[in-house]
């Protein structure tokens, strides 16, 4: 939104006289502004206003301004939810980075035909519903499920592990659903890399590892950072994974919001939580921009 | 006595069923400026990459200063490369780019600062330390790439078409600059180009490459005035190739009958004279600028003018050579009395006719 308007300003400045004479340049941007106002700005505004209102006894809200909703977030029980979500998001991000970086890196170095094949394999799961795929994990994780049977057959364990509805199950689910974003981010920046830079480093006396650390990592940093943002931010808000694989035992910010909205019927509090989550993720994006030096967010796409 | 710094011993390389290098052999002396000249795809870049260690030969050895380095990794060889696209690290400023090699070798910080300053002075970029590569012009990037390579004090500096991306004026300027840098450092330069002018201008020796083989190795003078093959003659300075039947040879002076066009003359070396027999088919190379055109019939080739054009300070007169194809004579100035359709006599001093493509000679010197 902000970026668009800046581009507009530039366009305005350069063609100002001509535009002014025509006097109708602003008409071309009406759909753009209309869309952003209607579908982005207004809902956010509504959410913010809602977060300062008071819940009604039975259903809906009453027009009574209060800071109570934000005060509630600071209560240990809710702060703890934020903390746990944050921990899980960090753990998810680190693991996807550790697995996704080498994956994306080597995928970019494959011969063209095999590259396309691998890309397809990474993307295909997106064609089925994420919910369905989570149910697939239930079959694997449930007691006496595929994983238990395999482990017992291998003699690793003697009795079924209670894997389903546990923290590790949620973590695996998170990593599984977000890994493709990391792989594709790293892949796209590795694929764009100029390999003669690595050759230059080797030529100047760097070992393979030194060349990787001083050149490759730096050149693929935009991919790493956008991968982190693309994994970290959704993992703060995804609630159905914790629902399905955590069985209500694992409570994340996303679940908390969903609970407050549906079963708790406390819209203002859910709105306050959402605003907090939005502020938090905005900070992450701001950090991303600071670190990567990217002025727009195209790198994220 | 000069010593041998680099030896290529029977280097062979195949890529996907194509022989890119077919067993090349070469010794390069210390302090030499040697140029690999050839059309694209002749294997010159592959040769360079094999010397740098970025590519492994299928057969043959590379010896650097007497030591076999064929199996050494690129970082273990005292050879540095100036890449075709410069390959400057875009995330580092000029200082860090130039300092890279020394930092990797963990040289003392103050020593690095001193050497970087010295190098930037050498390439006339003092004061540009903090600039990023993206803020530099093509010529400046080129200089940074050179400084980044020579700061490591390599025994051999490899340059892969370093001036290819620059415009003509800058290219000429950088040719002089490169030669100056090479002289002041005394480092052996192996230079790759497809531009004959660059090769003739800067080199101590030129290696003309064609399809993975060396066509001729020699000083710019030798390559220009005594091309061994018609390929070299055409590639270096675009000569005319004239084919005919050797009529007689007297005191190395050859008279050649060229179909019904007349007679051509050439001066053979003693060796060539001993190989040639009257009656055999021969090819001679004659440069356009050594040809003289006359209106009257006389000794020489009788040909008709097809076209006149002016390019690069020279007037080019195209002649219909019949089976010989188009011959081009060139001279200074912007006009001549001859126009398309005129019949002219073309002749040249015998020493400007050079025998090329003598198979027997080829085999003996290979």
Shape of chain B: elongated
SSE order of chain B, one letter for each helix or strand = EEEHEEEHHHEHEHEEHHEEEHEEEEEEEH
Report the top-level CATH class of the largest domain in chain A: Mainly Alpha
Strand content of chain B: 35-45%
Radius of gyration of chain B (Å) = 24 Å
Structural class of chain A: mainly alpha
Task: Give me the number of helical elements of chain A.
Answer: 15
Helix content of chain A: over 70%
Radius of gyration of chain A: 24 Å
Q: Which term fits the overall shape of chain A?
A: globular
How does CATH name the architecture of the largest domain in chain A? Orthogonal Bundle
Major sheet of chain B: size, sense and barrel closure?
A: 6 strands, mixed
Instruction: Determine the N-to-C terminus distance of chain B.
Output: 24 Å
Helical coverage of chain B, percent range: 25-40%
Order of helical and strand elements of chain A: HHHEEHHHHHHHHHHHH
Number of strands of chain A: 2
Architecture overview:
The complex is a heterodimer of chains A (301) and B (366). With 301 residues, chain A is mainly α. Chain A has 2 domains: 1-51, no CATH class; 66-300, MetI-like fold. In chain A, 72% of the residues lie in helices and 1% in strands. Chain A is built from 15 helices and 2 strands. In chain A, a hairpin with a 5-residue loop joins strand 1 and strand 2. In chain A, helix 10 (196-203) runs antiparallel to helix 11. Chain B has 366 residues and is of the alpha+beta class. Chain B has 2 domains: 4-230, 3-Layer(aba) Sandwich (Rossmann fold), CATH 3.40.50.300; 238-365, RNA polymerase II/Efflux pump adaptor protein, barrel-sandwich hybrid domain (OB fold (Dihydrolipoamide Acetyltransferase, E2P)). In chain B, 27% of the residues lie in helices and 36% in strands. Chain B has helices at 44-52, 94-104, 109-122, 138-150, 168-185, 196-202, 220-225, 230-235, 270-275, 359-365; strands at 4-15, 18-29, 33-37, 59-64, 67-68, 79-82, 156-160, 188-193, 205-210, 213-218, 239-250, 253-258, 262-267, 281-287, 292-294, 301-311, 314-320, 326-332, 343-347, 354-356. The longest helix of chain B has 18 residues, at 168-185. Chain B is elongated. Classes of the chains: A mainly alpha (301), B alpha+beta (366). Chain A binds chain B through residues 194, 196-197, 199-207, 210, 214-215, 218-219, and chain B through 52-54, 73-75, 79-81, 83-85, 87-91, 100-101, 104-105, 148-149, 152.
């Amino acid at each position: 939104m902000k970026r668009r308007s800046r581009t507009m300003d530039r366009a305005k400045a350069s063609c100002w006289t001509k535009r002014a004479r025509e006097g109708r340049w602003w008409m071309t941007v009406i759909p753009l502004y209309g869309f952003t106002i209607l579908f982005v700005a207004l809902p956010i505004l509504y959410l913010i206003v809602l977060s300062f209102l008071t819940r009604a006894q039975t259903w809906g809200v009453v027009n009574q301004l209060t800071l109570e909703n934000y005060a509630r977030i600071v209560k240990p029980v809710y702060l703890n939810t934020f903390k746990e979500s944050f921990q899980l998001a960090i753990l998810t991000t680190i693991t996807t980075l550790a697995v996704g970086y080498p994956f994306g890196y080597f995928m970019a170095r494959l011969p063209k035909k095999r590259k396309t094949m691998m890309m397809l394999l990474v993307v295909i799961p997106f064609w089925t519903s994420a919910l369905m795929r989570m149910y697939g994990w239930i079959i694997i994780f449930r007691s006496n499920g595929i994983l238990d049977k395999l482990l017992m057959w291998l003699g690793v364990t003697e009795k079924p592990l209670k894997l389903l509805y546990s923290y590790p199950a949620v973590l695996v689910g998170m990593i599984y659903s977000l890994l493709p974003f990391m792989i594709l981010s790293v892949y796209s920046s590795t694929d764009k890399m100029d390999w003669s830079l690595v050759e230059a480093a080797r030529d100047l006396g760097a070992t393979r590892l030194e060349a990787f650390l001083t050149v490759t990592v730096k050149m693929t940093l935009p991919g790493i950072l956008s991968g982190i943002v693309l994994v970290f931010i959704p993992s703060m808000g995804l609630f159905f994974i914790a629902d399905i694989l955590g069985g209500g035992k694992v409570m994340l910010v996303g679940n908390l919001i969903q609970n407050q909205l549906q079963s708790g019927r406390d819209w203002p509090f859910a709105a306050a939580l959402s605003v907090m989550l939005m502020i938090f993720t905005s900070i992450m994006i701001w950090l991303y921009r600071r670190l990567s030096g990217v002025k727009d967010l195209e790198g994220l796409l | 006595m000069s010593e041998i710094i680099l030896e290529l011993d029977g280097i062979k390389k195949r890529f996907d069923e194509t022989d890119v290098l077919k067993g090349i052999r070469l010794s390069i002396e210390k302090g030499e400026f040697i140029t690999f000249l050839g059309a694209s795809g002749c294997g010159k870049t592959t040769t360079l990459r094999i010397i740098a260690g970025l590519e492994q030969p299928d057969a043959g050895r590379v010896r650097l200063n007497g030591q076999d380095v064929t199996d050494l990794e690129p970082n273990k060889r005292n050879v540095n490369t100036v890449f075709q696209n410069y390959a400057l690290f875009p995330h580092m400023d000029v200082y860090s780019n130039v300092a890279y090699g020394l930092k990797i070798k963990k040289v003392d910080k103050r020593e690095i600062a001193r050497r970087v300053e010295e190098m930037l002075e050498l390439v006339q970029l003092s004061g540009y330390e903090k600039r990023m590569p993206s803020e530099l012009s093509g010529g400046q990037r080129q200089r940074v790439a050179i400084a980044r390579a020579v700061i490591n004090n390599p025994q051999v500096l490899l340059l892969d078409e370093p001036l290819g991306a620059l415009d003509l004026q800058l290219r000429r300027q950088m040719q002089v600059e490169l030669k100056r840098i090479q002289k002041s450092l005394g480092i052996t330069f192996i230079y790759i180009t497809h531009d004959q002018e660059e090769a003739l201008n800067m080199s101590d020796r030129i290696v003309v490459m064609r399809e993975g083989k060396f066509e001729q190795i020699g000083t710019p003078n030798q390559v220009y005035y005594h091309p061994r093959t018609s390929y070299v003659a055409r590639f270096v300075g675009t000569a005319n190739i004239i084919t005919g039947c050797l009529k007689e040879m007297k005191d190395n002076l050859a008279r050649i009958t060229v179909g019904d066009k007349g007679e051509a003359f050439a001066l053979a070396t003693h060796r060539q004279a001993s190989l040639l027999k009257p009656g055999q088919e021969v090819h001679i190379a004659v440069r356009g600028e050594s040809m003289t055109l006359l209106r009257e019939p006389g000794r020489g080739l009788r040909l008709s003018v097809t076209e006149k054009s002016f390019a690069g300070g020279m007037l080019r007169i195209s002649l219909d050579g019949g089976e010989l194809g188009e011959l081009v004579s060139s001279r200074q100035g912007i006009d001549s009395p001859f126009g398309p359709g005129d019949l002219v006599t073309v002749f040249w001093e015998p020493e400007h006719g050079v025998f090329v493509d003598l198979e027997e000679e080829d085999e003996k010197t290979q």
